[in-house]
Amino acid sequence: MATGNFKASLSRVLVSEGGFVDHPKDPGGATFQGVTQRTYDAYRRGKGLKLRSVRSMTEGERDEIYRRQYWDAVQGDNLPAGVDYVMFDGCTNSGPKQSIKWLQRALGSAYTGAIDGVIGLATLAALNAVDDVAALIGRICDRRLAFLRALDTWPTFGKGWQGRVQNVRRTGTAMAAGHAGEAAYFAAGANVKASIENARKAPSMAAGDAATGGGAGGLTMAGTLQTLQEQLTPFSAAGGWITNLVVALAVGGTLLAVGGIAWRYYAKRKTAQLADALDAVPA
């Protein structure tokens, strides 16, 4: 375990977070060195101090916030070298709970507990049983990227996030092998908070239900007209238009029904993929 890795990890995270950002699409709002105004307000209230702009945050305040709310939240001192930094960087960007879920999912069958975003005895036991830490780091980063791609802010900030995760992956792997790793760097957009609040909406099945229902209705009507035609045929030779209408309704109804079924399959599949990426379903 890497009990003394907090300062080295923090120095890298601070490079990735950069300075002040207040992008209108950033769910974190006004943020300075990775600390949001909301987080800083809560910290100041907890200390009985007057609220002020996060831009006035001191280095000591910043380090205490990072230590208590991020490093300690993922039990950084109890994690293997490399994993501690990967988890720490992830939770500063998406929150401790989400970062822990990535770890729990990445542990695979070794972890038999709930995907709850809480590091307990079961999580630590599974982690201690890992032989290939580098491979675990790779799986954590894969889970993180899947989560990021499931956000509706990915088109805006995806390039920056992807670069950050790639750097974290390489550095974490190097740390696991006992090396310092490459230098951290700042990528535009990589410091924007990646929040579950910005998850893409699952496709609605309503359109598929409507199409399937409409198709069934068309086929029913075709059957009714077919029966009517058969009853009228002995009395009239001008039933051709009924035949044409029956064919049109049958074809249209079939296409609607098939289209509705296909859409429902697509929507169900995409909903499952989205739930998996957002860690909303068990591994």
Topology (SSEs and partners):
Blueprint: H1 6-17, E1 20-21, E2 31-32, E3 35-36, H2 37-46, H3 59-71, H4 83-94, H5 96-106, H6 121-128, H7 133-149, H8 154-176, H9 206-232, H10 240-277
Antiparallel strand pairs: 1-2, 2-3
Please tell me about this protein's structure.
The protein is mainly alpha-helical and 283 residues long. The chain folds into 2 domains: 6-198, Chitosanase, subunit A, domain 1, CATH 1.20.141; 206-277. 60% of the residues lie in helices and 2% in strands. It is built from 10 helices and 3 strands. It has a 3-stranded antiparallel beta sheet. α1 (6-17) packs parallel to α4 and α4 (83-94) packs across α5 (96-106). InterPro entries: Lysozyme-like_dom_sf, Peptidoglycan-bd_3, TtsA-like_GH18_dom. The chain crosses the membrane at residues 241-263. It holds the Pfam family Glyco_hydro_108. This is N-acetylmuramidase.
